[in-house]
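Sharing a chain and its predicted structure for anyone who wants a worked example. Both blocks are below, sequence first, tokens second.
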Amino acid sequence: MNYKETLYFIAKCLTISLEEKNRDEIEIILKTTDVDWDTVVKVSTSHYVFPAFYCNFKRADFLKYLPADLVDYMKHITNLNRDRNTQILQQAQELNSLLLTNNIIPIFLKGTGNLLAGIYEDIGERMVGDIDFIFSKEDYPKAITILIEFGYSEVEKRKYYPPVKKHYRRLQKENTIAAVEIHKELLLEKYTNEFNYSFVEKDSQFINGISVLSYANKLNLSIIANQINDRGSYYKTMALRNAYDVFLLSKKTNAKDAVNALDKLTNPLNCFLAACYEVFNTVDSLEYNRIKKATAYLSVFNSQFINRKKTKRRHKQIKRYLFIKSRLNIFYNIIIYKEYRVFVFKCLTDKNWYKEKGIQFGLK
């Protein structure tokens, strides 16, 4: 199995609990084909969907087609992830109670928000990193103060920190499982006027006493995390963890209507939706706006699997372009914003900063 075949196989496997057509097709493959399980494990792990893969196979009663040692390994990893997520949910409940007691309502985001909303049949499916939540601009500094007073502190200790844009620096409390990111914005500056706290707060939902995004905005944020924050719209790549969330959420809300509710973001989100529709094997709930931009996006998306060397060169060029763009943005911020000038001045007048950069760039 080449990379494309493996990716599409894994994606289809992630739908077998809810899509009968894909379930039947996967069972035929399992019965008639010698699957390269080493490659499947490698790719599903790199996309953070290994536990979800296992859970779907278990629900479909397909584990009998897998090597016994692989099943044992999958079960072990999923159990570890389920235990971790149980602790994350407990930590999130504690944080929610703490903030509500101080008259602040956090809206939980991303993986933790999805776990709290119960979109997974098994909480062991989703691999989660940090606990993310967003606040109004008025409550944002209050939330930081409350968490610090409660025992949370910076994960990365520095003498001084760059100005905060999207979220406050990561915080963690001793003996807790996850770090916390306190957001004041949801994505990069270009789109903050379109998809922000005010936009998502008006239709957020309370589930078991906890505030989370509406299903439509959960779907949008799942795509935004890949397409905008991780620059997927430039690279034309897909993260299956995000795509799997989009698939599950498309069963709870109309995916096309969700992305059409936006303006500048509609096109990059619709393109990701188009890729999901194709990779998950034309699932009806992932229907997208069939426009020229989506067709062009899919053309590049699929061409990347044909010539991997050419794709790597293209991605290097994009990475170089984005690096230059980010450096130009830093210069812009230095000119416009005082806090950036202060931060840069502190860096340039700190001997340790030069030493750190010397080590980083291999200088003597």
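Comments welcome. Confidence is low (pLDDT under 50) at residues 359-364.
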